[in-house]
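So, who can interpret the following?
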Amino acid sequence: MSMLAGGNGRMKAEMNVTPMIDVLLVLIIIFMVIMPNQSEGLNAEVPRPATADQKPSLDSPLVITVFGDSTVRLNQEAPLAVGGLENRLRALYKNAAHHTIFVRAEQDLYFEQIAEVIDIAHGVGIKKVALMTPTQ
């Protein structure tokens, strides 16, 4: 604490906050360094070029388009309800071990609706899901 002498002869007490700010900045840096990394997310894989021993796939990739009215479309098929998606995916991928599906959604759609489609795909056994840019 420092004391200032006023013009009228009275002493005025003022707190010097500069050392306190220095201590707070050091504490902030310490907490930022020791704080554990708590980020979670989906694993992403970088595409790898095909090797000589791999056979090219004759199947076209499956693109699931999610609409705001709780319907989805598989490639260019007629739209179906999200509830019927699981049975349709089971029929398509009953013999497929590991395929990748692509999920696309309308613009301004909540991710909750997209996550529901991803959960259905994971329930069927499809582990690789790629997200595409929204449709216009």
In short: The longest helix spans residues 18-34. The mean pLDDT is 80.
